[in-house]
Amino acid sequence: MEVILLEKVANLGNLGDKVSVKPGYGRNFLFPSKKAVPANKKNIEMFEARRAELEKAAAEVLAAAQARAEKLAALAAIVIKSNAGDEGKLFGSIGVADIADAITAAGEDVVKREVSLPEGPIHMLGDYELEIQLHSDVVQTVTIVIEAE
Questions:
Q1: Lower CB count within 10 Å: N or C terminus of the chain?
Q2: What is the strand order of the sheet 18-20 is part of?
Q3: DSSP-derived 3-state class of residue 125
Q4: What is the CATH architecture of 2-62?
């Protein structure tokens, strides 16, 4: 199925690209989320008429994400206190929701889907470098310090 992308989609293409996707991906994800339209004559003409408007909107979203990344870079290390045993093992774990809440409390709004924990939840005390993906092109690293209460 051929589609025209209305915004940048990670691992697929940029605004205006005509790409081939599986029909289910197009019908169930791209079309409902308004990230793409089917590549037919009417939609191609409509897209060309709106191209400048869509590019401007995409540039504004990217600029906003870069501004948020600068604010996150300015934050000092985020400290999260949790109950822990004698050897530094936490009672429970620290997940993406806990980290997103701690960063939000520190002054910058972050939702949990933007936080990446590639090794899973944190179970030990210590310092951790985490990536916050604010946009498909903007990834900011923050330092999280897990301390015992």
A1: C
A2: 18-20, 2-5, 36-38
A3: coil
A4: 3-Layer(aba) Sandwich (3.40)
